[in-house]
Structure formats: structure tokens, C-alpha cells
Design a protein that fits this description.
single chain, mainly alpha, rod-shaped, 4 helices
Amino acid sequence: MPAPRKYPDELRERAVREVRATGRPVAHVAKDLGIHKEALRGWVRQAEADHGERDDRLTTAEHDELTQLRKEVAELRRANEILKAASVFFAQEIDRPRTRPSR
């Protein structure tokens, strides 16, 4: 489960919108809204990536997809390990010599 967010989504959107619409420096907007300037700077960069204005970051959708795919890969790797262990177990059962019970 992801960590809880320190700032509400509405505040994030408002801050990013103000920086982009007014052209004011990030540090000034952050100070006015009581936000850490580096947090706001990251939000602005992410908004730019989501709008196709930046190529150096993944969009939010791409990041979510990457996270989901990594979870899926981890699950498939665990399943493969289980299957490998089961195949070793059953191979040993097949190779074991069969003896008749004595009477």
C-alpha cells in the first residue's frame, strides 16, 4: 500500500495550475501556499510530462503501467519458482526405485 500523501490532490492541482498559468517562480508559489518548493517543483515537472512537454520523465499513466507490470513480473517469477520446485519433487518420485512390500 502506498504511503499517505502529505498534501491533498486539490492543493497539488491548484499549485501546479498557478505556477503554469501565472509564470511565477515555483519558490514564490510554494511559499504562498505553504508547500515545500521541491515538492511543488516535482509536481510541475510531472504535469509537464503528462502534457507531453517533457521527454525526460514518464507520464503518470506510463509510471502506473510500469508499476503494474513489475508486480506482474514478480508474481510470475514466484509462480515459476514454485513450479520448478514441484517439478524437481515429482522427478525424484519418478526416479525412485519401486520396491514390492515384503510379506
